[in-house]
Amino acid sequence: MYRQWFIILAFLAAVATARGELPEGATVLDQDIVWDIGDPDCATISPDGKLVAYISKGGVWICSVVAGPPARLADVPDTPTALMAMPQYREARTNFKRLRAILGNVVYNESIQPNLVAVFGLQWTRSQDGVIYGLSKRSPKDRRSTIHTLMHVSLKGVVTTLATIKKDVYGSPQSLIGFHVAQDREHAVVWHHTPLIWDLVKNRPRATCFDYLLPSSTSDRFLGIEIDTRQLVVTDEKLQISKRFDVTFDLGRGCDLFWSPDERYVIGRSYGHAEFPKSAWTGFRLDLETGNKRLMTGEFVTDRFVFTGLAGEVVRSGIIGREVDYLNALRGAYLTIVPDGDGPARALARFRVVPQPALLAELRERPPYPRVLHNPDFTLFAMALPHSSGKHSGYDYHLLHRDGRQWKFPIGTDPPYIAPYHLVAFADDGRTLVARNDSQLFSIPVEVIQANKETSDE
Amino acid sequence: MSRVSVAWSGILIALVVSTAPVAKSEDLPKSATVLDPDCIFYSWPYPTISPDGNWVAYVSKGHVCVCNIKAPEPLQIMEVSHSWTWPHFVVGAGNSSSTGSYPEFRELSRDQRNELMAQLTNRIYGVIWTHNSAAFVFGVQRYDAEKKASTSDTYLASVKAAVTKLAHIDPDTPTRGLVAGTLTRDRKFLVSSGVLATPGVEKPLLWNVAANKPRATCFLYLTPSATSGRWIGIEKDTRQLVIVDEDFQVTRRFDATRPERTFGFRLNWSPDERCIIWRNQVGFDHYSNWEGFHMNLDTGAKRELHGRFMDEQIEFTGRGGEFYRCGQTGAKTRGYDTVVGAHLTIVPENDGAAFDLWRIDVDPKGPKPGLLTNRPGNPPLRMSPDGSLFAIGLPRPAGERSGVTWHLINREGKTWRFPGEDNGEFVSPYQLAGFADNGETVIAYDATRLFAIPVATVKNEVNEINE
């Protein structure tokens, strides 16, 4: 009975999507959003999965993932979404091509917007008492310098400045793209490849002996690469090295790390600096307790890894080809599960041929290929696959179960490039998907998608 | 030996004598004492005098050598084959075993050049004396053409010719380069300036000698004290001026922060550890301007400084915070800096007026006279240990061949020309390594000889310049 009900809902959703409306079964969370299309990290789900925080219309918002209305926690004026929320851009917001043009020609044009502020690194605190975000803007006195501010806003809307960090374009790191704030708020680690420890109490840097620092997703410990020795190390909460491993990284190559939430497994990669992100990489997965190592390689440094929590099992996804602005020449994408131990990786999805627009220039007018999403227990994945009809260029979202089953998201007869809408994240213990279209943020039960007819691996 | 080889050897002898970068003087000054009569010098590493002024270390004939200045008995400490001055290169049918070195490139055919360069695989770096003058550090970089990879070894050589390997770096070592460096007084660490992370910006590397591996370093710059095991430097990330102890732990912090924007940086520390000179290059090449200051670390008193050229030689004289500045004088003309002269200026510790011991102005539009430039290890000025005398290469008079001749200048500006015939080379009448024996002697060298000249014999009426 339930199954029939969901099939009906799915049909209605397909019809609604074709009309540019919300799919049936969806719940509007925010009916008037202005999204930063250039920032995939402008929304984040709370640790308990019940809330979504996002940037829209020059503000930081939170909302329950099952019902609106949203609450505006803080203002972030002079940011791209604040500018795009201006009435003259209302029409452009529903047209990616025009939106991108306005962003490029107006919003990100320094001569027109000298005081533009960028938001970065939106994240929930682990205690879920609020969200932290970074703001960056050019120094009005010295245009070669950028002033980065780390902000905390509580669920009641109390905004606190955690740090103000000025970085020269010749500094190291020269800018900031990410950060981790310690639970005790005594320090933060900020980075743009190279890390910098910032004393939040004294609001000044602290000398660090690391070339790379990756925060644990479950504690204030860090996995790092020590400067000069280039050794893999783990630090305690005070950034003191607590463990060293018999692994070193070549100085002359780029490198990065992925760390399992239980802090037992690590993936380390080394790659050339040339032609990012095309650089091939070599790496390994290491069990930090036993020292067992599995060698790994890849063609593109844009490959991503997420540990599933099942020992060293890791989900690996990435694009095949290049995905760089006007050089966009995506040739495919893949999603595989690499088991613990030495067993063969299992592909859940892989495609190499994409129906593309006839003109390369048109690719600039398309949204970037979206990243793969997963639910908390890694049984379900949402991945965009090429339009199966072959009539349209672009992608349809599919729901992939790790056992091989697939469900296609219902799309209408004239689907957009990314169809049927843009997914933001799984939420509510994987029961809900948060998604958006050009003007609305909404959630949709995963069951609604699974009520559609299963499809085979195409 | 074949007739061809004989012919080659003859050519090689002639070329080495006539065209090597270090030219031979016609006759040594009568007062000179020959320390090593049979040398082959070729550019760097330059002969280096020990801190106590009793020894000179140098590279000759493919050997790292040392010689006592008062009781000269040259010691060949280590042979480094296939290095610049190694005397056994084989080019075509000839070889340099009997001549000492190879000829200038311009005398060789293209094939011969390639043949020679293929053999020139090893290089010697250093030489850096230990604080007690008992030994010196040098490095050897060896290139394996088959593997297309280099290994670097750093050695400690005692004045008695005992050699200890301090560090070995092969291509698999995941660290920055290390060739030579300053050995800490406890001999636990070798501190190298490291490779240039950014052009002109050095970053030190601490090498744990016992473990033969680096130690993570939180410093962007380190300068050793001339009189203790302490260092002064710039801490990473905070970019703060700090003093560190022998174990590289920060013991003092100062209210001075290096800008993030830097294209080169120099920090001088006075021997009494009381003053610093801070220079930050603000342009991208060595000709660029610098900004900085002299600071008394005890009182915090600062004297702003700036210069047109980063390669200006600046050193403390050992008389408190007094220092000298020597180099080319620049001025901004038509939008860029040009050389308008050269100077040797004494700057007193406090706010007293700086005064010139020597200065020359040149027409920026006219032909330049020879002006010594500051090359690493070969600065344009040598100072006696007590800061009373300066040896400086002064340009030949206008109209003569471009180049310099060595002169001695005292604090009153009295000037003497070093004895010896002008050999017509850019630097004449020979090269100077520096003062030795408490300033009583100057160590000099030409293409084939290392010798000592008593300062007293330079300071006589015959050599005095009256202007």
Observed structural traits:
heterodimer; A: 458 residues; mainly beta; four-stranded antiparallel β-sheet; 5 helices; 34 strands; 43% strand; globular; B: 467 residues; six-stranded mixed β-sheet; 3 helices; 7% helix
Q: Can you lay out the helices and strands and say which pair or pack?
A:
The complex is a heterodimer of chains A (458) and B (467).
Chain A: H1 2-18, E1 27-30, E2 43-45, E3 51-56, E4 59-64, E5 71-75, H2 80-84, H3 96-107, E6 117-124, E7 130-138, E8 145-154, E9 159-168, E10 178-181, E11 187-192, E12 194-199, E13 204-206, E14 210-215, E15 222-226, E16 231-235, E17 241-248, E18 254-259, E19 265-271, E20 281-287, E21 293-298, E22 304-307, E23 314-322, E24 329-338, E25 346-351, H4 360-363, E26 373-374, E27 380-386, E28 395-401, E29 406-408, E30 418-419, E31 422-427, E32 432-436, E33 441-445, H5 446-450, E34 454-455
Chain B: H1 3-19, E1 33-36, E2 48-49, E3 55-60, E4 63-68, E5 75-79, E6 90-91, E7 94-95, H2 110-119, E8 122-129, E9 135-144, E10 149-158, E11 163-169, E12 182-183, E13 189-192, E14 196-198, E15 201-202, E16 205-208, E17 213-215, E18 219-224, E19 231-235, E20 240-244, E21 250-257, E22 265-269, E23 275-281, E24 290-296, E25 302-307, E26 313-316, E27 323-333, E28 336-347, E29 355-361, E30 381-383, E31 389-395, E32 404-410, E33 415-417, E34 427-428, E35 431-436, E36 441-445, E37 450-454, H3 455-458, E38 464-465
Parallel strand pairs in B: 32-34
Antiparallel strand pairs in B: 1-37, 2-3, 3-4, 4-5, 6-7, 8-9, 9-10, 10-11, 12-13, 13-16, 14-15, 16-17, 18-19, 19-20, 20-21, 22-23, 23-24, 24-25, 26-27, 27-28, 28-29, 30-31, 31-32, 32-33, 33-38, 35-36, 36-37
Q: Would you kindly provide a written description of the structure presented here, covering whatever features stand out?
A:
The complex is a heterodimer of chains A (458) and B (467). Residues 1-19 and 324-328 of chain A have low confidence and may be disordered. Chain A is built from five helices and 34 strands. With 458 residues, chain A is mainly beta. In chain A, the strands form eight sheets. In chain A, strands 26, 27, 28, 29, 30 and 34 form a six-stranded mixed β-sheet that branches. Chain A has helices spanning 2-18, 80-84, 96-107, 360-363, 446-450, and strands at residues 27-30, 43-45, 51-56, 59-64, 71-75, 117-124, 130-138, 145-154, 159-168, 178-181, 187-192, 194-199, 204-206, 210-215, 222-226, 231-235, 241-248, 254-259, 265-271, 281-287, 293-298, 304-307, 314-322, 329-338, 346-351, 373-374, 380-386, 395-401, 406-408, 418-419, 422-427, 432-436, 441-445, 454-455. With 467 residues, chain B is mostly beta strands. Chain B is 7% helix and 43% strand. Chain B is built from three helices and 38 strands. In chain B, the strands form ten sheets. In chain B, strands 30, 31, 32, 33, 34 and 38 form a six-stranded mixed β-sheet that branches. The longest helix of chain B has 17 residues, at 3-19. Classes of the chains: A mainly beta (458), B mainly beta (467). The A-B interface holds A 144, 167-172, 196-197, 204-209, 226-230, 248-251 and B 174-176, 205-206, 213-218, 235-238, 259-262.
